[in-house]
Design brief:
The structure is a single chain. The protein is mainly beta. It contains 1 helix and 8 strands. Strands 1, 2, 3, 4, 5, 6, 7 and 8 form an 8-stranded antiparallel β-sheet that branches. The two termini are about 20 Å apart.
């Protein structure tokens, strides 16, 4: 099973992203990380989505570094080890289920 799914959706509109994620059963909220934020390797007990609406973030998972820019999303299966960092700052819509 693929534990990390990445997609360049091109969708940046908050309302549309909230709608898409809620239709898929996610609890949804918005989050902002200022420049220089770093999260060391960690996991979440739920399936997680991060959908970038401003800025960019690098997510490291399964030996890969994925640069997420505006309109990009990543979906992580439960308990997938990953880390994140942003040099420029990032605002994203988060989903958990």
């Amino acid at each position: 099973m693929e534990r990390v799914r990445y997609e360049k959706t091109g969708i940046k509109e908050r309302k549309k992203i909230y709608s898409i994620l809620r239709e898929k059963g996610y609890s949804v909220y918005e989050w902002y990380d200022p420049p220089g934020t770093y999260y060391p390797t960690h996991t979440h007990p739920d399936k997680e989505v991060r959908w970038v609406i401003e800025g960019e973030v690098i997510i490291g998972a399964e030996g890969k570094e994925i640069l997420l820019k505006e309109g990009d999303m990543i979906e992580l299966e439960p308990n997938t080890p990953h880390w994140a960092k942003t040099e420029k700052g990032v605002r994203y819509i988060c989903g958990s289920r």
